[in-house]
């Protein structure tokens, strides 16, 4: 059995056949590996191996009540793990492969390690589109549990160097495939009793709204209440830099690193043209740069809440929250 968190000399390899072969060998040996996806870099391990899943939690310092997303190659593989209703099936057809996670009832005998679901009767599933994550799933032959590849609660990594800065010495390998495309974690949706967005993301509420019409009105009336934690990314304090973060800033105080947007300039900008998609892609990289700056605090310009702006503001609200 692999110890949950042995000391490692973390290696970074560029994406390619050799890197995927090395990563797959580690997965089979029960060790987690950091790898690019279209959303953020994930810390992947065999979702059927309890010790491997424990190694994810140990490397991240992640609370055990926070469930993990399992990544598979296609709908067929997903159906072997979870029970799909008509709405979930329609969403999968429309958005998989892609940055959509479905929270569905766990199928009996699916073989998923209990720690993956954190004791819930549901499981979060995604079919990724990114070549690196898909190659690792195929090469390892395993469904991969993969939260973001950073210390728990910290800024999500969108580049390999972000992973190393957070997890150096805690994991054996990072597969570097450049900056991620979406820059935000996947949208998470539950479909039981009608469609509910549990975590906003690259696929917007506006885009998803049409699919709620597929749910019978009788089911919507009995829509179950959301449990305290039903999916990743629901903690009040999450995605947080080490420095205090001030939201909706128009100007910077002398000790602040201002992240601009649109006409509000700063030390860096999410998008000089106020493009929300560009802002989402740049968000975590900008927070990493601000956190590494000499400034004592961070400020960020107002971000509109329409479209993917809702997901950006969700991450910023959690990043600014300080536990007391």
Distance between the termini: 38 Å
What is the number of beta strands?
14
Structural class: alpha/beta
Overall pLDDT confidence: 90
Strand content: 15-25%
- Count of DSSP H/I helices: 11
Output the radius of gyration: 19 Å
**Largest sheet, described in full?**
10 strands, mixed
Strand order of the largest sheet: 1-8-2-3-7-4-6-5-9-10
Give the topology string: H per helix, E per strand.
Answer: EHEEHEHHEHEHEHEEEHHEEEHEH
**Residue share in helix:** 25-40%
Q: Which short descriptors sum up this protein?
A:
alpha/beta, 324 residues
How would you sum up this structure, described in words?
The chain is α/β, with parallel strands linked by helices. It is 30% helix and 16% strand. The protein is built from eleven helices and 14 strands. It has helices at 17-28, 50-60, 75-79, 86-95, 114-117, 131-140, 160-167, 205-208, 217-221, 276-292, 309-320, and strands at residues 11-14, 33-35, 42-46, 69-71, 100-105, 122-126, 144-145, 173-176, 187-190, 196-199, 245-246, 256-260, 268-269, 297-300. The strands form two sheets. A ten-stranded mixed sheet has the order 1-8-2-3-7-4-6-5-9-10, with helices on both faces. It has a four-stranded parallel sheet with strand order 11-14-12-13, with helices on one face. Strand 9 (187-190) and strand 10 (196-199) form a beta hairpin. Helix 1 packs across helix 6. The longest helix is centred in the C-terminal third of the chain and has 17 residues, at 276-292. The model is unreliable at 218-227 (pLDDT under 50).
């Amino acid at each position: 059995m692999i110890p949950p968190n042995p000391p490692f000399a973390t290696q970074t390899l560029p994406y390619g056949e050799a890197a995927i072969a090395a990563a797959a060998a580690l997965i089979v040996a029960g060790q987690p590996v950091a790898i690019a996806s279209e959303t953020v870099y994930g810390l992947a391990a065999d979702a059927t191996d309890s010790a491997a899943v424990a190694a994810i939690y140990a490397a991240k310092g992640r609370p055990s009540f926070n469930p993990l997303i399992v990544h598979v190659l296609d709908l067929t593989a997903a159906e072997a793990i979870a029970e799909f209703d008509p709405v979930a099936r329609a969403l999968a057809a429309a958005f998989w492969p892609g940055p959509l996670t479905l929270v569905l009832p766990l199928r009996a005998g699916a073989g998923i390690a209990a720690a993956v679901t954190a004791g819930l009767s549901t499981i979060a599933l995604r079919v990724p589109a990114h070549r690196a994550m898909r190659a690792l799933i195929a090469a390892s032959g395993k469904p991969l549990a993969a939260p973001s590849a950073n210390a728990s609660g910290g800024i999500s990594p969108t580049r390999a160097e972000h992973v190393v800065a957070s997890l150096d010495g805690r994991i054996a390998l990072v597969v570097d495939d450049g900056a991620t495309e979406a820059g935000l974690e996947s949208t998470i949706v539950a479909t039981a009793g009608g469609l509910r967005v549990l975590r906003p993301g690259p696929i917007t509420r506006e885009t998803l709204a049409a699919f709620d019409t597929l749910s019978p009105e009788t089911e919507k009336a009995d829509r179950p209440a959301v449990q305290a934690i039903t999916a990743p990314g629901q903690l009040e304090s999450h995605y947080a830099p080490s420095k205090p973060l001030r939201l909706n800033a128009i100007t910077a105080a002398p000790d602040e690193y201002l992240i601009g947007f649109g006409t509000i300039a700063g030390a860096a900008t999410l998008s000089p043209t106020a493009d929300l998609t560009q802002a989402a892609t740049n968000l975590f990289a900008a927070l990493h740069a601000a956190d590494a700056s000499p400034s004592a605090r961070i400020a960020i310009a107002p971000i509109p809440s329409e479209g993917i702006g809702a997901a950006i503001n969700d991450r910023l609200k959690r990043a600014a929250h300080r536990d007391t």
